[in-house]
Amino acid sequence: GNSVTQMEGPVTLSEEAFLTINCTYTATGYPSLFWYVQYPGEGLQLLLKATKADDKGSNKGFEATYRKETTSFHLEKGSVQVSDSAVYFCALSKIQGAQKLVFGQGTRLTINP
Amino acid sequence: EAGVVQSPRYKIIEKKQPVAFWCNPISGHNTLYWYRQNLGQGPELLIRYENEEAVDDSQLPKDRFSAERLKGVDSTLKIQPAELGDSAVYLCASSLDRLQETQYFGPGTRLLVL
Description:
- The complex is a heterodimer of chains A (113) and B (114).
- Chain A is mainly beta.
- In chain A, 0% of the residues lie in helices and 54% in strands.
- In chain A, strands 2, 5, 6, 10, 11 and 12 form a six-stranded mixed β-sheet that branches.
- The termini of chain A are far apart.
- With 114 residues, chain B is mostly beta strands.
- Chain B has no helices and eleven strands.
- Chain B has strands at 5-7, 10-13, 19-24, 31-37, 44-50, 53-56, 65-68, 75-79, 88-95, 104-105, 109-113.
- The model of chain B has no long low-confidence stretch (mean pLDDT 92).
């Protein structure tokens, strides 16, 4: 079946550090891949997405590249800020009659000033 | 544009009691989803509506859970009776239609069953 595995958290970094959150997936066919972010007290928000192999999604300084050969979609940011503290979810979507999102378990990120 | 609205935001009940959650999706969004998010986990789909029709409820525990979307807009998710293991965050999301990849999520209802 379809599944997503994320690196376990929590992750704690200092401001301006480099961030990588690993994500790998298992799926038949060619899913679309997503990163969602959940800030404290808020709902999940789409951060970025990629719909085919070698696509790079980017938003707010975050990037992730769809790597079919390694079935990965790692999230990166060159210089994190305190405001990036949140829970990050990697997800895939396959059309099975409709778009169906499958989420990883989430990674809690805390950025210290 | 208003986002997905959910209420209540928090609910504490004793086991065996009933509970209901309400969701108002983004205006014009035909597809509505209910997810359950257990502590430390990602959301898992419970049920999906296309307008007023439930088209994917394979993950909904039908012995105690029910849902409705009578006019194809607002939706209610009910648990009766609640069990300790139902403690979780219940998320509602909507999208324009079933083929749209981007789902918009509400803030969720955090349920604690004592």
